[in-house]
Amino acid sequence: xxxxxxxxxxxxxxxxxVLVLLGLVGTGMWLNRHPFTFDGEDDAVxxxxxxxxxxxxxxxxxVPDSSAGGGEFNDLDFSFAWYNALAQExxxxxxxxxxxxxxxxxxxxGLVIVPARASVLLEPPQIAVLRSWVEGGGSLVVEMxxxxxxxxxxxxxxxxxxxxxxxxxxxxxSLLQGDIGKHLLDTPLHSRMLRLDTVELPDVHRTDxxxxxxxxxxxxxxxxxxxxxxxLGFDFGMAVTSLQQGVPLADFxxxxxxxxxxxxxxxxxxxxxxxRPDMLVAHPKLRQALVPYADLLERHVLYAPLRERPxxxxxxxxxxxxxxxxxxxxxxGFGDRATYMAEYESRLGLSxxxxxxxxEISNDALxxxxxxxxxxxxxxxxxGPDAIYESRGLGRxxxxxxxxxxxxxxxxxxxxxxxxxxSSRVHGLEWDAxxxxxxxxxxxxxxxxxxSYGPVEPESYxxxxxxxxxxxxxxxxxxxxxxxxxxxxxxxxxxxxxxxxSVLATLLKESRGGYHNLLTLDIDADAMAHQPxxxxxxxxxxxxxxxxxxKHWVTNLRxxxxxxxxxxxxxxxxxxxxxxxxxxxxxxxxxVAAVRDGAPLPAPGLAVPLRYGSSIIESVTVxxxxxxxxxxxxxxxxxxALISTSPGVRKVEVRYAAP
Amino acid sequence: xxxxxxxxxxxxxIRALIWGxxxxxxxxxxxxxxxxxxxxxxxxxxxxxxxxxxxxxxxxxVDYDAFPxxxxxxxxxxxxxAWLNTFQQEVGPVALRDAESLPETELGNYRVVVLTRSASxxxxxxxKLKGFVDRGGTLVLEMPEGVLREAFSADGKGGLxxxxxxxxxxGLATDQLAVLQELPxxxxxxxxxxxxxxxxxxxxxxxxxxVYRKRMGAGWAIxxxxxxxxxxxxxxxxxxxxxxxIRDRRGTSEIETAxxxxxxxxxxxxxxxxxxxxxxxxxxVIDPVQPVVGLWPFxxxxxxxxxxxHDERGMGDTAAWMAEHEHGFKGSSSYFVRKPxxxxxxxxxxxVTLGVDVALxxxxxxxxxxxxxxxxxxxxxxxxxxxxxxxxxxxxxxxAYADLPPLVSVRSRDHxxxxxxxxxxxxxxxxxxxxxxxxxxxPGKSxxxxxxxxxxxxxxxxGLAFQVLEFPNVMLARGAEGERARLEQLxxxxxxxxxxxxxxxxxxxxxxxxxxxxxxxTWRDAYRLAAAHGHWITSVRNLYRFSRARHNSExxxxxxxxxxxxxxxxxxxxxxxxxxxxMTVSVPxxxxxxxxTEARRGLNRVQGDELLAxxxxxxxVDLMGYQRILLxxxxxxxxxxxxxx
Lengths: 659, 645
Known about the structure:
The structure holds two protein chains of two kinds.
Chain A: H1 2-11, H2 13-33, E1 36-38, E2 56-57, E3 59-63, H3 81-89, E4 94-97, E5 111-114, H4 116-121, H5 124-135, E6 139-143, H6 150-153, E7 161-162, E8 168-170, H7 178-185, E9 193-194, E10 209-213, E11 216-224, E12 227-232, H8 236-245, E13 274-275, E14 288-289, H9 293-303, E15 313-318, E16 323-330, H10 340-347, E17 353-356, H11 363-371, E18 375-380, E19 389-394, E20 397-403, H12 406-417, E21 423-426, E22 431-432, H13 437-444, E23 449-450, E24 461-462, E25 484-485, E26 490-491, H14 500-515, E27 518-522, H15 527-530, H16 534-549, E28 552-555, H17 557-569, E29 571-577, E30 582-589, E31 604-609, E32 611-612, E33 615-622, E34 625-626, E35 633-634, E36 640-643, E37 648-656
Parallel strand pairs in A: 1-20, 2-29, 3-4, 3-5, 5-6, 6-12, 14-24, 16-17, 16-27, 16-28, 17-18, 18-21, 21-23, 23-25, 26-27
Antiparallel strand pairs in A: 7-9, 8-10, 10-11, 11-12, 13-22, 15-31, 19-20, 29-30, 30-37, 31-36, 32-33, 33-34, 33-37, 35-36
Helix pairs in contact in A: 3-9, 7-9, 8-9, 14-16
Chain B: H1 2-33, E1 36-38, E2 58-62, H2 82-90, E3 95-98, E4 112-115, H3 126-134, E5 138-142, H4 146-152, E6 159-161, E7 166-169, H5 174-182, E8 189-191, E9 200-205, E10 208-216, E11 219-224, H6 228-237, H7 273-286, E12 294-295, E13 304-311, H8 321-327, E14 334-338, H9 345-353, E15 357-362, E16 373-378, E17 381-387, H10 390-400, E18 409-412, H11 423-430, E19 435-436, E20 469-470, E21 473-476, H12 483-498, E22 501-505, H13 510-513, H14 517-532, E23 535-538, H15 540-552, E24 554-564, E25 567-578, E26 584-588, E27 590-591, E28 594-601, E29 606-607, E30 610-611, E31 614-615, E32 619-623, E33 626-632, E34 636-644
Helix pairs in contact in B: 12-14
């Protein structure tokens, strides 16, 4: 038998060699067509960090110099939510850490904000400095103060902390009135609060109670000397962060949506699976929210000191425009065909953001987008069926492929487009099932803007995250991550419904009417190829027209952030003289060139209280020149007057009429 | 050695088996990925000799015996049936008889008799024709010969000539004359030694009278001394080269219907030149001496029609999004669906539910890798493919959804036509498809490339007619700059006087292949613009049905002079059987020196002791400068007295 086999092999050895070679070539060809696949691994930063002070304003935020990270979500320090609130509502402000806070920090300051943890960390001498400053006429906002703040808060004994809040029950003292005031009462709350109903509040008149939660005073005003103290009895930072960034489970994990629930855990390594950002939405009613609840809450709190002492701020939109609209288009591998939206927008002199998946699109198309003034962002493909693979091997043999990491995708897109990429949206909205891991990966890849938060389900729309304005996500260590999240409010797959235009029209109309928001829309460039329906294109075209009608600035993510950052980097100092009823202010807004054409971006408007007490503005001068009062803009809530300016140093005097 | 000797042939066999198997596997694998393609023969049905027993004012006479059986070239064809297009487009019901039945035909039943070129030489008919004219009838003769020429026309001694340019058209507006003058005259004319004595010249070519009329007794004889049918067919259907072949004139490597366009100047023509010529013949030549009454070609007397079409192009069920939008305002359209293709039975059901005309996109095996192919093989190995014929594609579409309404409309993929002038129509006829919309201007151009937007009946190369109506496209929308404005312009001019059916194509697949915001805007606004310009928004099938119903309706008129209320009036008494709702009759605004004053339905009808005066609401329209009055009809029989005073 052995002889026979040897005999066969020896007789056919050359045939067998050729057959084996053919088999190898065949296998190689097969592997080239069906390569082995491997996931890519994204880097992530270790955590958030204390942001630098980049502007200079007459509002001072005292942040804790040590953060209370770890533990559970409800134990997190939300002090930096104030950072977001001030960036959104005020613009430039000063920043100091609690350990370094001293009297020199109060020079030129009109309002000091002490978040809950900073109020714990500030030493009695520092509190005494604040007290004397308030007595001299300053305004102080202090969050959940302890007994050491008794001289300012009026509460001498320790107060129990309630672990949950249900609803705002009264806001009679709020500057937000009318329909907007009513919506403030609807704000979903996820916070903790001092049980101020268990203590006495001396010197606090009923009219000084600005907000009640669950029937308990939660925000009140107290006159101290010539100054004013505004005490927040609830964790404003937690409430705002929960709305804006969402609420994870206690261990910071995020539940996967139902269709992914079975895949929640990877059997191999017990790593959490993937989820979607909308799983973080704080309250079911937010899934169809036409009201930006987080912004209303911020405005309520930051408007309150204006009643007693007028102060200026920078309007978050150019000049006196009512808001902004950003159109974003995911290219999703549609290739050069995707550029038709850019062509149309460019024809109208408008811009948008394209999230490009670096797969199909040509350099020519990227150049065309650039020429059309479009911002190119990255459509980030995560590991999984939609991953972008790079085949690897030797020579023409490419037997395996590896999914490109976020950094590699960004690098590829930057090399294709020849330009820096700063914005991103996660393709398919695949989100790590953890509160901030995805943000950490984005930061590690030097992405500065994300716009993955927004509605996903077809019936969802609006301010699912309480705002349309950018905010810095708060990491698990309580510190902000240096990336802006810019939630979108409508998507061609969510919220357009049978008549997407009407939702959009409502959002724009109400934004002009009082909510003054940034409305980011997600309309995929390939929507008509995959889920064609007229509403998609109709809503897109209507958006451009309605934005013009409703006085909204049509821009792109990067341009808005440049504008927003320039606003934060501005210098704004104001001084109010109660005797002459004059608010004098000096604003220095840097000039920033737009990426699309190098032209200077418009400057934000100057916002000042429309009223002081019962009187309204009598005269306004800008650089010594009186301006017609009928050229002033007004915020839809009736609180602010808007003065249009241009970049550079401007001196403004606003005089209020005698009562 | 002996063992080795014994093993050698066995080894050879094994080796042959091994390498044969390897070679076979490689060949089969290669063929499976690059199968051999086999052509399929289309079933063809030639044109047929039509005879129409319609109740009408107009009788066309053709002599099918004079039609060459196998003409060698386009010039050798007989174009007599082109007259049928003219009268069906402008009048609606028309009687058509073969020459052999004319002796038994009572000409007194008609007010206009047209002896087409094929039938203008029968000497024996002279007494009958003279009697018809003497009694007030109008006889139209195309290039008559022999005694008929002697009796009714100029001498024809100049013989056949190749014409150059139209030089005069009586009463035709200057701009319309200019359009006609640009037209290459692909026809022949008959010259004479001089104009007909007592005749009135209406059209001259190269200064030669080619259309003239003469009063004879109480009636009129009108001579058309050029091959009218040839010119009309050249414009509408295109003119092939020798052997009825089409040349790739546009350099696109394939032959599209755009290669059939007669002249470069027609590619973006604003004016429907064929209709200018036809309407001149009907309203400029015949109507002044014999008032022409016709059924209006559009529903409810609207000013025109926008025939909305969509090419599915293999997009599948999602292509229905345009239909869903149209359904929102009860609009209708035609979807040209590819079969074999991805559209499912559910998709077809949805289209039918949305009121769509489900039509066939003829996926012809023309072009690299294109067309519908059927795999042939065994055990998953498919080394060959066979082209799916039109008949099979139509059958597959019909079978795909049991409740599909009768399949009527068809369009060739990418408007491909192939080298043969008439073969595609033969294939359509064989497949039982009745309305084609393959004719189209080339991409990027729009207008009346085929001289008309109205459906016309194509001719076979034998000169016989296909039972198919061609709906030429005026625009294949692509989202180019200015398309919307162009559509608005065409609609505006149609409303103003051209009164056309504008077949436009918007493919839902365009938003996948070449998405364009401008394309969307044009499509979205097309409906609004059509409505604003009084156009009927419809589908190929709906317009086909309406046109056929109009052709098959009955319409007779009688003119009498009366005294009414102390004055002389002329009564035009109409009797019509309208087969569809929404039909309208068109009458002249003036007859001689008398002008339309009113129209009453059944003037003498009595109910009880009351005389009914069912006065109709007239609507004046300008039809390329010819003033007409539209009167609404009820479905069924209508008797109407139209009063001119």
